[in-house]
UniProtKB/TrEMBL annotation:
Catalyzed reactions: 2-deoxy-D-ribose 5-phosphate = D-glyceraldehyde 3-phosphate + acetaldehyde
Residues in coiled coil: none
SUPFAM superfamilies the UniProt entry points to: Aldolase
Similarity comment: Belongs to the DeoC/FbaB aldolase family. DeoC type 2 subfamily.
InterPro entries listed in its UniProt record: Aldolase_TIM (IPR013785), DeoC (IPR011343), DeoC/FbaB/LacD_aldolase (IPR002915)
Organism of derivation: Streptomyces inhibens
GO molecular function: deoxyribose-phosphate aldolase activity
Name listed for the protein in its UniProt record: Deoxyribose-phosphate aldolase
Organism lineage string: Bacteria, Bacillati, Actinomycetota, Actinomycetes, Kitasatosporales
Pathway(s) annotated for this protein in UniProt: Carbohydrate degradation; 2-deoxy-D-ribose 1-phosphate degradation; D-glyceraldehyde 3-phosphate and acetaldehyde from 2-deoxy-alpha-D-ribose 1-phosphate: step 2/2
Swiss-Prot/TrEMBL GO biological process terms: carbohydrate catabolic process; deoxyribonucleotide catabolic process
Name of the gene this protein is made from: deoC
Enzyme Commission no: 4.1.2.4
Gene3D superfamilies linked to this entry: Aldolase class I
Annotated keywords: Lyase, Schiff base
Superkingdom of the source species: Bacteria
Length: 322
């Protein structure tokens, strides 16, 4: 496709030239996909798949090294009584807890994700955001979850948001290494770009910001911080999946998707997996390309997993409190 990011005018014309979103059709399609029936064998597979896609998260001011270590232990062995349970994809923490998480996870294969760029508001000068990112990467973060400047986007300052994402992507390079694009991913943290879709007002804005982030080099696009009233919803996630599909068709570049916030039950998680399969296909049904940003979701998945294997519902007292 032509270079639509050559200047602010070209980027603006491209983003506003994207087809308008049929809100009624989008919501109806999301609702229809949510009614698909999943049988016992498929449900067991879906539960394990969902567990393996979780970014197990603690992002509180009261986080301590002990809490982070306990969360890492749970991420490696979600059900201590059943070592057949898969590991989660990542542990997501603030930058100052990255080193603690990295040490606790060791060679388990569970990644360390770190929020950055003045999470969750994103209200800071660019040099501060880049320093935040570089500190997390230097401490060992495998993935960076950045937040866009929603004020800039809603004001129509698209190139400003585009350049900021590009700059953060460059900051994801390891010290002394190269950018992920140049290295093929070996020496850089993956970049997830958070939109905070609950603040973007329209579906058209969600489509525009999805394309904007992908054009700027996002490895993942992510719905929310989990810190506002409206977080991930099926229609918004479906719209982002469709944007990823169309971007892949136009460029050949595969981008991941991460709904975050408000996904608490196994039933909800399976609805999202059906949505991914129907929109993008099996190629995206791995933790490399789809994640759940969640904390309480894992406990419900574990309870449903225990019920399938034992025939008994154990209840919340049988899983650890995060």
């Amino acid at each position: 496709m032509a270079d639509v990011t050559a200047d602010d005018g070209a980027l603006r014309r491209f983003l506003h030239g994207l087809p308008g979103v049929d809100a009624v059709g989008l919501e109806a399609r999301a609702a229809t996909l949510g009614t698909r029936s999943i049988k016992t064998t498929a449900k067991a597979y879906a539960i394990d798949l969902a567990i393996s896609m979780i970014d197990l998260t603690t992002l509180e001011g009261a986080d301590t090294p002990g809490k982070v270590r306990a969360l890492c232990a749970k991420g490696i062995h979600p059900d201590p009584t059943d070592r057949t349970s898969p590991k989660v994809a990542a542990i997501c923490v603030y930058p100052d807890m990255v080193a603690t998480a990295k040490e606790a996870l060791g060679d388990s294969g569970v990644h360390v994700a770190s929020v950055a760029t003045a999470f969750p508001a994103g209200r800071a000068a660019l040099p501060v955001k880049l320093a935040d990112t570089r500190d997390a990467v230097a401490a060992g973060a495998d993935e960076i979850d950045m937040v866009i400047d929603r004020g800039a986007f809603l004001s129509g300052r698209y190139m400003e948001v585009f350049e900021e994402i590009k700059a953060v992507k460059e900051a994801c390079a390891r010290p002394g290494g190269t950018s992920q694009t140049e290295s093929g991913g070996g020496s850089a943290a993956h970049l997830k770009v958070i939109f905070e879709t609950g603040e973007l007002q329209t579906y058209d804005n969600v489509r525009r910001v999805s394309w904007l982030a992908m054009l700027a080099g996002a490895d993942f696009i992510k719905t929310s911080t989990g810190k506002v009233a409206v977080n991930a919803t099926p229609p918004v996630t479906l719209l982002m999946l469709e944007a990823v599909r169309d971007f892949h068709a136009a460029t050949g570049v595969q981008v991941g998707v991460k709904p975050a916030g408000g996904i608490r039950t196994t039933k909800d998680a399976i609805k999202y997996l059906v949505m991914v399969n129907e929109t993008l296909g099996e190629r995206w049904l791995t933790a490399d390309w789809f994640r759940f940003g969640a904390s309480s979701l894992l406990n419900d998945l574990l309870m449903q997993r225990q019920k399938l294997s034992t025939g008994r519902y154990s209840g919340p007292d049988y899983v650890t409190v995060d």
